[in-house]
Amino acid sequence: ATLAEAPVSEVNINESLEQLVEMLKSSPIYKKGVALRTLTDELIPPALWGDRTVFVRGLLNLISNAMKFTEAGHVTVRTCMLSDPSQETVRVRIDVIDTGRGMGEVEMANARKPYVQGRLHGRVSGLGLGLPIVISSIERAGGKFSMSSTIGVGTNCMFELALRRSDPTCPPSAPGKCDKPSRSKTVLVVDDVEMIREGAADLLCGHGHTVLTAEDGETGLALLKEKADELDIALVDIQMPRASGDEVIADYREWEKEHRAGKRRLRVYACTGNATSTDAAAYMLPKRFAPERFL
Prior knowledge:
Layout: E1 9-11, H1 13-25, E2 34-39, E3 48-50, H2 52-68, E4 73-81, E5 89-98, H3 105-111, E6 118-120, E7 123-125, H4 130-140, E8 144-150, E9 154-164, E10 186-190, H5 194-206, E11 210-214, H6 217-226, E12 233-237, H7 245-259, E13 267-272, E14 283-286
Parallel strand pairs: 2-4, 10-11, 10-12, 12-13, 13-14
Antiparallel strand pairs: 1-3, 4-5, 5-9, 6-7, 8-9
Helix pairs in contact: 1-2, 2-4, 2-5, 6-7
C-alpha cells in the first residue's frame, strides 16, 4: 500500500514511543542490566496522520529483538525529523540502537528472510517471522527499512515513515468538520504473549475502544461465554497453552449455537503469523493488523 492507500489514524510519534517504552519496562523482555532509553526529536509535530499500526508493530518488534540479544549496555530508541515540518507530507526516522552481540553480513541477510531463526545462547529463538513481517508492512506503507551491525559492538535498525500533517480523509471543503464518531466497541484479545496482548490493547484503547484480555485459551473461552452479550469482536491467537485458538473458537461456536440462538453472532478473528492457516469458524487476521480492517 502507498501512503494514500494505508489505513489512516492520528499518531503522536514521540508520545506513543514514550508510552510503549514504559509498558515494555514492566514486561518480561525488560532486563535490569540493560538501559532502555529514548531520544526524541521535538521538531516532530505532535499530531500526524498515517498507519499507526505499522509504527507500533515496528517498534515492538525491533525493541524486543534488541533487548533479547543485549546483555549489557543500552537499547536506545531515537526519533528524527527528516523533512521540513511545515510540509504537508513529512518523513520521520526511528532508530533502535543496541549494544548487543551484533551480526555479520550473512546473519543480517538471513534476519530479513522469513522462517530463518536467530540463535540466543546457542539455541534457536523465535519463529523467524517477526522482522520480515515488520519490514514488509513498513515498505507497503511507503516507508523504508535498513540495518547495520558490527559483531561485538551492536546493531542499529532504522525505519522511515511518510506521514501527513492533516487527516487525508477530511474533505478540503470542510476543514475542522472531519470528526467521524463511531460507536466504541468492546474487544477481547486472547494471546499468551504479554507484549502482543498489551500492545494490541494499547492500540485499540487508543482508538477509543474497551479492551478485555486473556492470557490463555481456557481463560479466553470463559470470558467469551461470560461477556458474550457485551463483546463486539474477539481476537484469538492460534498457538496458545491450555487450549489452542482453533479449539477455543470451535468450542465457543458450539456454545453460541446452544445458548445464543437467534442473537447476534460474535465476530471472531483468528490471529496468526502463519498465512496458510484456515478456519471456517473465524476470520483470519495476520498479527500485523490495523483496527480499521475489522472495527
